[in-house]
Amino acid sequence: MNIPLPAITTRAIGATLALIILLVGGCSSVRLAYGHLDWWMDRNINKYLDLDGAQEDLLQLRVDEFHRWHRQTQLPRYADYLELLAADVDSPDANPEKLKQIEEQVDTFWHSSVVMLSDLLLPIVIKLDERQIDQLEENIREEREESLKKWEKSKRKREKEFRKQAERWLGDLTPEQDAMIDHQVDTTTFDPKHRDAQRQLWAKEFINTLRNKPDGYQKTLREMLINPQSLWSDSYRQMQDQLRAQARALASDILTSATPEQRTHLKASLLEYAADFRILAAQEH
Fold first, then answer.
1. pLDDT at residue 47 tops 70
2. From CA 90, how far away is CA 180, in angstroms rounded?
3. Three-class SS of 222-277
4. CA distance 202 to 5
5. The whole model's pTM is what?
6. At what angle do helices 155-170 and 175-187 cross, to 10 degrees?
7. Which of 27, 104, 166, 194 is the most exposed place for a label (fewest CB within 10 A)?
8. What single string gives the DSSP state of each residue in 37-85?
9. Rounded-to-integer distance, Cα 225 and Cα 74, Å
10. Angle, nearest 10°, between helix axes 192-212 and 130-152?
11. Would you give the DSSP letter of residue 173?
């Protein structure tokens, strides 16, 4: 979930949904973190958009509207799905195809929120003046360059993140599972410069469309926000597909090797998240 609208989708939306869907720190912190979601989104979006007073007021209203919509309509969907996954934890079948179905369902959740947030924020973005568009372009460039620097130093970070996520859901890992993660990091092929080039292309297309306003530009901008993959090159799409397949294979191997204690931990974690989401959904704000 990750802000220009290109970056809204790749950072604000991306990080927001990562926070909401299954990647928050611990079950006890879900409600606290989610309660500050509107503040967090507003703060991150303003890193990219240099808004005047009226625009800032409208942004706050739109962020509040998204937060309310997400709480009331999306959190119950997440809770339902987590409960289904919890009921299936004891199944020995954890093959990559089954995990792909879970991935596709999470993509569906993601898409719903991307559409809603894009439709709320796009009317603000298309009203930016030339100075604000220039600043947006500069902010995107700075964020992209900083992201590239981080990715180029990311092998150890990725290893820690894999392990952190596995331990969050399963508890302590076995030596065999640790070795699986080490092997995944060592053999994963990811070119951060390829990713940066793709992001640069996306940003250029978005800024040019926003600045020049050709016929149908609002529809074009919306499509770029909701479906940034439409600008992916064949080679970049192939790299992303390979990364997803490798991640599914790792998850399948780890789940297949899970001990009874780890499966109990996983089921309890899924149900705790679901319960927290239901409590949050019942709150007004």
1. yes
2. 21
3. HHHHHCHHHHCCHHHHHHHHHHHHHHHHHHHHHHHCCCHHHHHHHHHHHHHHHHHH
4. 11
5. 0.83
6. 150
7. 104
8. HHHHHHHHHTTT----HHHHHHHHHHHHHHHHHIIIIIHHHHHHHHHHH
9. 20
10. 170
11. P
Give the separation between CA 262 and CA 169, rounded to whole angstroms: 8
Q: What is the mean pLDDT of residues 151-172?
A: 77
Structure tokens at 57: 């007021």
Q: What is the CA radius of gyration of the chain?
A: 20
Q: Where are the alpha helices (DSSP H) in 171-233?
A: 175-187, 192-212, 217-226
How many domains does one find in the chain?
1
Amino acid at 197: A
Tokens of 254: 């780890």
Residue 92 pLDDT class (50, 70, 90 cuts): low
pLDDT, tens digit (0-9, with 9 covering 90-100), for 181-238: 888 888 877 788 888 899 899 999 999 999 999 999 999 999 999 998 899 999 999 9
User: Measuring CA to CA, which residue among 132, 148, 162, 117 is closest to residue 48?
Assistant: 132
Residue 80: the pLDDT is 94
Residue 18 vs residue 116, higher pLDDT: 116
Q: Label residue 24 by pLDDT band (50, 70, 90).
A: very low
Domain extent, residue 214, equals 5-282
